[in-house]
Amino acid sequence: MQGQSQQQAYDRGITIFSPDGRLYQVEYAREAVKRGTASIGIRTADGVVLAVDKRIRSPLMERTSVEKIHKADDHIGIASAGHVADARQLIDFARRQAQVNTLRYGEPIGVETLTKAVTDHIQQYTQVGGARPFGVALIIGGIEDGEPRLYETDPSGTPYEWQALAVGADRGEIEDYLEEHYDEEMDLDSGVGLALEALASVNDGELAPEGIGVATISVGDEQFHELSDEETEAHLSEHDLLASETDEE
Q1: Residue 1 has pLDDT above 60, yes or no
Q2: Is the Cβ–Cβ distance between 89 and 96 less than 8 Å?
Q3: E-assigned strand segments in 129-206
Q4: Alpha-carbon gap, residue 15 to 216, rounded angstroms
Q5: Which residues, listed in sequence order, are joined to residue 226 by a DSSP beta bridge?
Q6: pLDDT at residue 246, as a whole number
Q7: What pLDDT score does 140 carry?
Q8: Is 145 exposed, middle or buried (CB count within 10 Å of its CB: 0-12, 13-18, 19+)?
Q9: Is the separation of the CB atoms in 238 and 193 below 8 Å?
Q10: CA 244 to CA 69: how far, in whole Å?
Q11: Other C-beta atoms within 10 Å of 247: how many?
Q12: How many CA atoms lie within 13 A of 50 on its CB side?
């Protein structure tokens, strides 16, 4: 009985390490990320691809209100998995950091610099009493000095750089698919195709364009571009991933 009460004390105290060196609330925040629909990031030779599963819970819901891909700056995009409200707070923070950097130094913020600013902000919420960690993971991708960069933020406040990754539901299965098919020399269109194939691999092999979101940041123009439903549908058709009308009905 005493052991159980001690366990509950560590559960409630975000700033208290358990005897085995764990912060339970941070681990629970990671579980919240797993409950979110999947997001994928892929770094190619020509740029970065972000793709997300925008599963709509009801046909009455406005699709445009489901936001999982965001523009942080002209050359940086962010995809999220986990608590949407937490994601919006972090993305607003990232946008402010990007604007401050441009005004202060007269140049776009680096992808690594922005990621570490965001993860420093996240880390504070693992060390301060009276607050909880952010229950969200972000994929931050963009172009820095002409090179594509791709990072993940974790609820603990740790940044990781990747060639390709997934966060959210089915992370393990999607990353297994990416490890098998990823080629660092692929172009941007091939990266979009791989991201869609990876999403389809955990969705019965078919996707509807209105149920996913895709964005790219190209090395050529260093501009964030979110694909329209028509552009996404064209990619799905090219890779034979388009859901049939009977399936959609």
Answers
A1: no
A2: no
A3: 136-144, 147-153, 159-161, 164-167
A4: 39
A5: 215
A6: 38
A7: 98
A8: exposed
A9: yes
A10: 25
A11: 10
A12: 34
Kindly state the tokens that stand for 195: 């991201």
Domain boundaries, the chain: 2-248
List 202's β-bridge partners, or say none.
none
pLDDT tens per residue across span 157-205: 999 999 999 999 999 999 999 999 999 999 999 999 999 999 999 998 8
- Contact of 37 with 83, CB cutoff 8 Å: no
pLDDT value of position 216: 98
Dihedral sign computed on CA atoms, order 101, 102, 106, 111 = positive
CA dihedral 57, 60, 64, 68 (to 10 degrees): -10
Which residue has tokens 């005897």? 19
pLDDT at 5: 55
CA–CA distance, 128 with 76 (Å, rounded to integer): 29
Write down the pTM of the prediction: 0.92
Residue type at 66?
Answer: V
Mean pLDDT of 75-99: 97
Q: Write phi, then psi, for 69 (nearest 5 degrees).
A: -120, 135
HSE toward the beta carbon, residue 40, CA cutoff 13 A: 33
pLDDT value at 4 more than 60 = no
55-69, 70-84, 186-200, 221-235: which range is least confident on average? 55-69
Q: Which fold would CATH assign to domain 2-248?
A: Glutamine Phosphoribosylpyrophosphate, subunit 1, domain 1 (3.60.20)
The pLDDT mean for the chain works out to: 91
| CA 26 – CA 49 distance, rounded (Å) | 28
Overall size of the chain counted in residues: 249
Pairing of strands 76-82, 136-144: antiparallel
